[in-house]
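[[Per-residue structure]]
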Amino acid sequence: GKFIRIEFNFAGQIAGANIEWYLLEKPRVTNQSKQERNYHIFYQFMKGAHKSIKDKLLIDKGPEGYTFTQRCRQTIQGVDDAAEFEMLVKAMTTTGFRAEEQADLFRIIAAILHLGNVQFQATRNDEAVLREQVAAEKLCHVLGIQLSDFTRALLRPSIKAGKDWVTQSRTLQQVTFSVEALARSMYERMFGALVSRINSAMSRPDGKSTFIGVLDIAGFEILETNSFEQL
């Protein structure tokens, strides 16, 4: 949901605006019902971004090729995702987003898509290991981190126990939960940074006198498997 504060000056003209957001539906990033789909930006990006941008971010498939977008509806009748992406880029440019800022947002979107494709398997000792490294290598390349650091933090993290640091192996289920939590957290942080950047562009500290508030409360989806974020 969101609360939009539209501010006016003494002449009755719009002087600025501010957006407050809350209760972002994070589970949608990793799990969707068959009748719904992930957040629109994923489909808009894959269908509308220029090939050079997608090549740089190693996006070489459509929505059907990524785990977080392939198990639900991939199209909406009457909606052109490519055209919507073009409108999005124009809106960000008009709002004052620099090319570097836009690239960083798209980098996070691509990273989440790659993260969903990282596959794991369990050993005989019930320890999780990478099934293959291709998706993980793409993810680390996009984020600019070392593959060894990523796999160690995910599969064998170091935990402080008292005064000592202990390395623990993770089960397949634990790693799966960690991957989903990481994807949701990345999207939430990106979303929060995006709203803050928009608020900064629309802020008009001088000449404000009154405002009109618009409250938009969206209902949560009832999924086959709900989590704490749905409460």
